[in-house]
Amino acid sequence: MQAQLETLSNLERRMNIALPMAAIDAQVTERLKNMARKAKIQGFRPGKAPLKIVEMNYGAQVREEVLGEQVQQGFYKAVSEQKLRVAGYPRFEPVANEGDKDSFKFAASFEVYPEVKVGELVGKEVEKPVVVVTEAEIDKTIDILRKQRTRYERVEREAATGDRVIIDFKGSIDGVLFDGGSAENFPFVLGQGQMLADFEAGVTGMKEDEVKNITVVFPEDYHGKDVAGKTAVFEITVKNVAAATLPEVNEEFAKLLGIADGDIEKMRAEIKKNVEREVKRRLQASIKENVMQALLDVTEIELPKALVQLEVGRLIEQARRDMESRGLKVKEMPFPPELFQQQAERRVALGLILAEVVAENKLEAKPEQIKAMIEEFAESYEHPEEVVQWYYASPERIEGPTSMVLEDNVVEFVLGKANVVEKEMSFDALMGNNA
Amino acid sequence: MNQERLLQVILAPVVSEKSTLVSEKNQQVVFRVASDATKPEIKAAVEMLFNVKVDGVSTVNVKGKVKRFGRTFGRRKDWKKAYVSLVAGQEIDLTATAAE
Question: PPIase FKBP-type domain: which residues (chain A) (predicted)?
């Protein structure tokens, strides 16, 4: 077997391989002989057909199979001989053979992994957000928790902002009931913008069992096209007005949150722990993001198209499954690959860079690191031991934490080298909420 | 014998264990032929189509099998089989002609 390597561009290579025809023929005959022992052909008892007849029937097919295999084998042998790292899958094409009957020639085009040269990290600025969890943040969290546990109690007074009302309503435009304009026993909370402002204003001030007609003008850009811009009259019957009460921060509230003895101090401590864990997680995520960006910035890398293509396919598949699980009809939905191109490129680049950094600096995940990581995961569950056991039960489950440890190692390594700039960040900005 | 008739005489080669056996042993080739074909016709037809010398022709009328479907009996068609002996040294490559 002969193999010649051509360099087409930085990453693209083409290999011209010639396989000896004799070897192929020998293998074809060998296979046919094996087949003849069992072959069932019209006019012959099974296995009694002569080789010639078997060849007539199956020759072409067997030849194709053998060729396919030989091409694969030949290619991988050549690759391992020349110590190439093939990215993605190669593309094979036969080469026209002039006069040479003794060999079968084909060309394989493929891409190789790029040499990754991780750039100089020293002096590179990496932002490291810092957030301090103070009592104020804990109070805020407690407030949110209280709001989630709001209780409503029936009152016999006029409905005011913040109250929950249960109403029947019938809406009509020009005296005709319209679709979706009527409901019975419809609950909503006043003052949260759930309904149109006019509607809420109309309901505010009504009492239980009161009936009233209100006029509502639908805005021009209302999502219901049929009624947008029109004026509707709603006949509203208030069935129930309930005032909201936020639970007091007391023993009972603490018990609700799972503190058995209702100790408020303990509850605060518990909440603090949770908030701090969340903050830590988000900080780490944001640092990781910054570090990865820094790595991308300092490294110049040419990506093999085949790998990017594979990654795009994977992303599309993922997006599709995601949508499906949300109950969307995926079949008619087009997934333009361009949408995923950039993300895929980034992921491939990062993957290559990370692998390089890890290999170069010996940052492999150590078992005790993985263990620590899993234990940290487990902490937020009710039965940590079980969670730990679940992770160790099968090798695939360990993979997740392992790669996270790897990433953490890389982050640490980069932070050790780079010029870290600490930046104060507000709690709210980090959590991404304005509550 | 006119050529048009000769082209209608030979219907198909018979490929079976027996036919391969006799071809190796006696330089015979087996054909399915028209039921009303005569030995001279078959000889002429083979000589013309395959460009070989024919030594002799034996024919046999194969009776169609009686087949039953439920209560009704049916009969397959009778057909004629011809064993054509070639003059020594002559050969018909049926695999090649079959592919044509």
Answer: 162-242
Alpha carbon distance A289, A103 (integer Å): 54
Alpha helices in A211-301 (DSSP H): 251-256, 264-298
CATH fold of B3-86: Alpha-Beta Plaits (3.30.70)
Nearest to A428 by CA among A142, A127, A128, A131: A131
Give residue A367's region: left, alpha or beta (phi > 0; psi -120 to 50).
Answer: alpha
Task: Locate the chain B residue with the closest alpha carbon to A54.
Answer: B95
How far is Cα B52 from Cα B72, in angstroms, rounded to an integer?
A: 46
Q: Where are chain B's structural domains?
A: 3-86
Residues A323 and A427 in one domain: yes
- Could you give the CA distance from residue A240 to residue A368 in angstroms, rounded to a whole number? 60
Q: What does the alpha-carbon distance between residue A431 and residue A283 come to, in Å, rounded to a whole number?
A: 10
Q: Quick check: A199 and A234 in contact, CB under 8 A? A: yes
- Residue A55's closest chain B neighbor by CA? B95
Candidate from B17, B95, B98 with C-beta closest to A43: B17
A96 and A179 in a common domain: no
Q: From chain A, which residues contact B within 8 Å (Cβ)?
A: 42-45, 48-50, 52-53, 56
Q: Which two tokens stand for residue A139?
A: 């109070």
- A-chain residue closest to B93, CA distance: A52
Neighbours of A57 (CB within 10 A): 16
B97 touches chain A (CB under 8 A): no
10-residue mean pLDDT series, chain A (435 residues): 66 73 80 82 84 80 82 77 70 68 72 69 68 73 74 74 78 74 76 73 76 77 70 78 73 68 72 77 77 72 72 77 70 68 73 72 72 74 77 74 75 71 67 50
Q: Which domain holds residue A30?
A: 2-112
pLDDT value of position A435: 37
Q: For residues A176 and A232, give the distance between their C-alpha atoms in angstroms, rounded to a whole number.
A: 9
**pLDDT for residue B65 is more than 90:** yes
The Cα A346–Cα A353 span in angstroms is: 10
